[in-house]
Amino acid sequence: MILCDIDFFKFFNDNYGHQAGDECLKKIAHTIHDCPQRSSDLTARYGGEEFAVILPNTNLKGAKMIAERIRVSVRNLKIEHDKSTVDRYVTLSLGIATTTPGRDNSAEKLIAHADKAMYEAKKNGRNQSIGERLKNT
Known about the structure:
The chain is an alpha+beta fold. The chain contains four helices and five strands.
């Protein structure tokens, strides 16, 4: 699983307006949707300016490759973001978590770990992806 959050999106909305914010979200949603390549992969808006990418049967190395493809593709859209302290264009922070389904590895636990990794990416400067494989217990 990959969770993606648009860096400083509130500042984007405040600066450019909600219509521009909606257009930005649409462009990013299409870009994120196009990065995974298998029919079993699922992308969805997770809420606000967050997106989730579900990658069944994908290991951490594969998920990191897709997360980086998403990050670079969104940056390459070159959507101006004058109020970002990270870059002159819109960027993403991404959290990755992988696991093997089992009795002790719930969907909630996977989401919590991806969310934690995403906030770690934000804390470490944004415009990056961080991931981990959950240990099976």
